[in-house]
Specification:
The structure holds two protein chains of two kinds. Chain A has a single domain, classed as 2-Layer Sandwich (Dodecin subunit-like). Chain A is about 15% helix and about 45% strand. Chain A is built from one helix and three strands. The chains are: A mainly beta, B alpha/beta.
Amino acid sequence: MSAAALRLQPVTLQFRRAPGPLLAQIEAALAPHGQPLRWAITAVEPGLAGSCPLLTLEAVVLA
Amino acid sequence: MTASRPLPTLLVIPTGIGCELGGYAGDGLPAARLLAAASGCLITHPNVMNAASLYWSDRRIHYVEGWALDRFAAGELALAPRASQRVGVLLDAGIEPELVLRHRQVIDACRASLGIPIGPVLTSELPLGVSLQKGASGSSWGTIARPDVLLRAGEQLVAAGATAIAVVARFPEDPESEALAAYRAGSGVDALAGAEAVISHLLVRHLGIPCAHAPALLPLPLDPALDPRAAAEELGHTFLPCVLVGLSRAPDLVPLVDSLMRGTAPLLHAAQLGAVVAPAGALGGAAVLACAERGIPLISVANPCLLEVNAEALGLVAIPASSYAEAAGLVLALREGIDPAALTRPLAGPA
C-alpha cells in the first residue's frame, strides 16, 4: 500500500470466539476491514450454556 | 555464588486505558526499574518509560515501540542492542513558531548536556492533523489526517542518516475538558495516548526503525491539586526529553529472516523470553496473546483499568500478582528456577 493511498479507519467489532488459539481468530476477524495497525480486545461477554464468549475488538486499520 | 543468567522479560502496560499504575506520565517507571533488576533484561514500550522531562536510562531495559513490541512477541522481529542511535526529529508543520523553538532547545540541550547524537531535524511539509477519539470502552483512540505526510517525512529523515525517529506532533488543546481535569486529578484516561500510538506504529511499520512520539502542547494553568502521577508532564515546555533519551539507546529492529543471517551479533529473540508481565484486566493485546500462545509464563498484575479482559475470560493460564513488587519476586523466582507455586500455601496439587 503506497503512502499516498493510506487511510486510517477506526473499527469496533464483535465476534464469537471459537475453541483454539485466539490470535489467528482475531486476525481473521479484522482482515475484511483492512490491515490492522492497532487493536485490543476491550470486552468479553461470557457465552451462555457452555457456548464460547463474545469478544469486542477495538482497532485502527489501514483501509 | 554466581548470578543467574538474565531472564528476558516483557513488560506491557497498555496505553490509554487508565491503568492506575502506568496510565499517567511515565509512572510505570519504578515498576520497570524493579522488573529490570529482577530479570536482568526487560523489554518494554515508551508508554512505560516516557515521563516527559523525566527519564531513566538503564542498560538492562530495552525501549521498544508498541508495534515493534507486538512483532517481537510474535517472533517476527529480533532486537539488536546498540550503543547509540542517531535520532532524527520530525516536527509537525502545525506547531507554532514559539513552540517549535522550545523543542529545538530541548534538542540542543540533549546534544550538549547528554551527548545524544541527534539530527537531522525536519518539519513536515503539511500539518499532520491529529484528532482524538474515544472507543466504546472509553479507551483512548485517535488518528491523523495525513499519514502520507508523516511517512514521507520519515523516509527523508532515514535518507539523511537517521537511525531512529522522534516525532513531535501538534495535539489539539482542550484545557477546560472534563477528561483532562480527571486525568490531572488522577482518575482519568490519557486522552492523547491513542493518537500517539497510531503515529509511532505507522512509522515503525513503514520504516522498520525505532520511533517514538511526543505531543506538542501549550503549558496548562498551574493546578495545586495535580496528581503526582501526572506531574512529570507539567515540569517543562515539552514532552521530548524522555523520547530522545529512550530512542538514543533503543535496539535495532531486525526482521526474523535478517536475524538468521546476522551471525555473531547478539540478538534478543522472543524464544528467549522467560516471562511476560501485564495488567490483569488488559490481557487482550497482541503481545500478551502471542506470548501466551507460545507458552511463556504470564504474570497478571492487579492494576485496575477501564477493561476487564482477564485471564479467566480469555481462557489463559496466568500467575496472579497483587502488585509489581510481587511480580518482580515471581520473575526472580523464574530466573532462579524456582517454581512460583512452591512459594504459596496450600501447595498446589500434583503437577
